[in-house]
Design a protein that fits this description.
The complex is a heterodimer of chains A (314) and B (249).
Chain A: E1 2-6, H1 16-26, E2 31-38, H2 42-49, E3 54-61, H3 63-67, H4 70-80, E4 86-90, H5 93-106, E5 110-114, E6 116-119, E7 122-127, E8 132-138, E9 143-147, E10 162-165, E11 175-182, E12 195-199, H6 206-220, E13 223-226, H7 228-232, E14 253-257, H8 263-269, E15 274-279, H9 286-289, E16 292-295, H10 298-311
Parallel strand pairs in A: 1-2, 1-4, 2-3, 3-10, 4-9, 5-9, 12-13, 12-14, 14-15, 15-16
Antiparallel strand pairs in A: 6-7, 7-8
Chain B: E1 2-6, E2 9-11, E3 33-35, H1 37-51, E4 57-64, H2 68-78, E5 82-87, H3 94-108, E6 112-116, H4 127-135, E7 139-149, E8 152-159, E9 162-169, E10 172-176, H5 188-194, E11 199-203, E12 215-221, E13 230-232, H6 235-245
Parallel strand pairs in B: 1-4, 1-6, 4-5, 5-11, 6-10, 7-10
Antiparallel strand pairs in B: 2-3, 7-8, 8-9
Helix pairs in contact in B: 2-5, 3-4
Classes of the chains: A alpha/beta (314), B alpha/beta (249).
Chain lengths: 314, 249
């Protein structure tokens, strides 16, 4: 069987979600190809060709593919599927946008956000915000799968797959790209960061959130996250949101500051290797999942933590 | 302009799902059920379009057991004009739901379908995209802002790292993300009024749509629990533990 992995990238850089999805794909088959769809994305394709275990990299380029239009992605991938038994896409907001279209066009189910591969037809996926794990067996001839990247280890570099350019589909007639506003940041990306510092509603304002969380994140070289409550209150931008309805992260170290630990937040971070919680409420549910809990007001605890990190040479 | 809003009855978002001891699924007996939160946002947006004079009719639809009628009554109390229940005891997969909605859309001919981006039970995030594909209508998912003018809709979408704006020709499918709006609570007079609004019931079988499942659920299990941690007294303790014990600094 042959498997196609659709690369996640920003036209300039390949994201490690792609390498993680390759790891899931290699559990299905040793014949794994990668599709890079974008605009000016030759560098991304070159990076993808270096992933160990990859047979071939396909590169398709057009303005609409660069903008990530779902209709264009589907029109590109569906004809390719005559040569593949499965297509795996990282479950990012981009992947979730187009992958179900491929499934619908092929008249198959999408198996969403798998966290494990049992065999070529059987997969494990979280349901109910991760409060249950469902083992499903597919009866479809072709599998359309999205992969929760955080649970798979990134496939290593060291390969040298051949690169092949393929034509891009025609521009979609009824969907038009207007613009895109991306937040520029020097910090690591939230979904792939080794350390994440998250703030909650306790911060009380956007200014306080920035004043408390930013310096700590900078000191640790961490990405910044937030609870839904903090995002809904306007203390942090929406793409900071960690949780069932936001991003799912699994860093080496997750530091939750002033976050109570609602079910929907825990669903987004409970697979982190080490969890630290700082909260003045000793009964906050976050302490039930935390490896290290510090019951203290963040107003004193965060400055203390900054000094302790400095003393420890950080 | 007619807006169709599909809604799903799911376990209430404040209730923790519990896995059945026989691993056959999640226990829904005597559990509070509500409208899926993302569907509520879609209903709210449709009602706001009507209040602005953009939409002329808002039709809510649900596929499910007789109790899904209660969820439709909630949509009617929020301001939808009428409702359709496609009755079935089966739990349909997203592809089957999309096919059923396509069949209903052929009769209803809405100009816009506004729906939640995902249901919080199956967490698939697929039905809207599948429906757009089957209809060959444009899609704009994960909407955080929606502006309809004439035969076009301008949709701001939440994407990785920021926001994207698309313009789609109507008819189109728009799926709602969390920050599109804050849904209203239905007032008591509106709940009373909703009881008199039209709720048409059709049997799923009467539509002649293939809704056979493609996935077989072998088992449903609880996720592994995290072992309990420890409390530290000071920030300095914390840093030293992270450094020497956990090895993550």
């Amino acid at each position: 069987m042959a498997v196609l992995v659709i690369a996640d990238h920003d036209n300039a850089h390949l994201r490690d979600t792609t390498e993680k999805t390759v790891t899931a794909a290699l559990k299905l088959s040793s014949d794994v190809d990668i599709l890079v769809a974008g605009q000016g994305a030759k560098g991304v394709a070159d990076a993808a060709a270096k992933i160990t275990g990859v047979r071939k990299v396909l590169l398709a380029e057009s303005a609409e593919l660069g903008e990530g239009l779902a209709e264009s992605m589907e029109a590109l991938v569906v004809p390719l599927m005559s040569g593949y038994d499965a297509v795996l896409t990282p479950a990012t907001s981009q992947g979730k946008n187009f992958s179900p279209r491929i499934a619908a066009r092929l008249d198959v189910a999408q198996i969403s956000e798998i966290v494990d591969v049992v065999d070529a037809n059987t997969f494990i996926r979280p349901i109910y915000a991760g409060n249950a794990l469902e083992t499903v067996q597919s009866s479809d001839a072709k599998k359309v799968i999205t992969v929760r990247p955080t649970v798979f280890k990134a496939a290593a570099d060291g390969g040298s797959a051949k690169l092949e350019s393929i034509p891009a589909p025609a521009k979609p007639a009824k969907t038009h790209f207007v613009d895109q506003k991306l937040v520029k940041s020097e910090r690591p990306e939230l979904s792939g960061a080794k350390i994440v510092v998250s703030g909650g509603r306790a911060m009380g304002s956007a200014e306080e959130f920035t004043r408390v969380i930013d310096p700590l994140a900078d000191k640790l070289g961490a990405a910044i996250g937030a609870s839904r409550a903090a995002v809904d209150a306007g203390y942090a931008p929406n793409d900071y949101q960690v949780g069932q309805t936001g991003k799912v992260v699994a860093p080496e170290l997750y530091i939750a500051i002033g976050i109570s630990g609602a079910i929907q937040h825990l669903a987004g971070m409970k697979d982190s290797k080490v969890i630290v919680a700082i909260n003045k409420d000793a009964d906050a549910p976050i302490f039930q999942v935390a490896d290290y809990g510090l019951v203290a007001d963040y107003k004193t605890a965060v400055p203390d933590l900054m000094s302790a990190l400095t003393a420890a040479g950080k | 302009m007619k807006v169709l809003v599909p809604v799903k009855r799911v376990i209430d978002y404040n209730v923790k799902a519990r896995v059945k001891p026989d691993q056959s699924g999640v226990d829904l007996a005597n559990v509070k059920m509500s409208m899926n939160p993302f569907c509520e946002i879609a209903v709210e947006e449709a009602v706001r379009l009507k209040e602005k004079g953009v939409a002329t009719e808002v039709v809510a639809i649900s596929i499910g057991p007789a109790q899904a009628g209660e969820t439709l009554r909630t949509a009617l109390a929020m301001g939808a004009d009428r409702a359709i229940l496609i009755q079935t005891a089966d739990d349909l997969e997203p592809l089957a739901v999309a096919k059923v909605l396509k069949a209903v859309i052929a009769e209803e001919s809405p100009d816009l379908v506004l729906m939640g981006k995902q249901a919080i039970d199956g967490d698939n995030n697929a039905t809207g995209q599948m429906l757009a594909t089957l209809l060959d209508w444009p899609q704009a998912t994960f909407a955080s802002a929606l502006e309809v003018s004439g035969k076009k809709a301008k949709v701001t979408r939440e994407v990785d790292g920021g926001l994207q704006t698309l313009e789609v020709d109507l008819p189109a499918i728009v799926t709602a993300d969390l920050r599109l709006n804050e849904p209203r609570y239905a007032s008591l007079p509106n709940i009373m009024k909703a009881k008199k609004k039209e709720l048409a019931i059709k049997e799923l079988a009467s539509l002649g749509v293939d809704t056979a499942p493609r996935l077989k659920v072998l088992k449903v299990t609880e996720p592994p629990k995290r072992a309990g941690g420890i409390k530290v007294e000071t920030a300095a303790d914390l840093v030293s533990k992270l450094k020497t014990e956990a090895g993550v600094l």
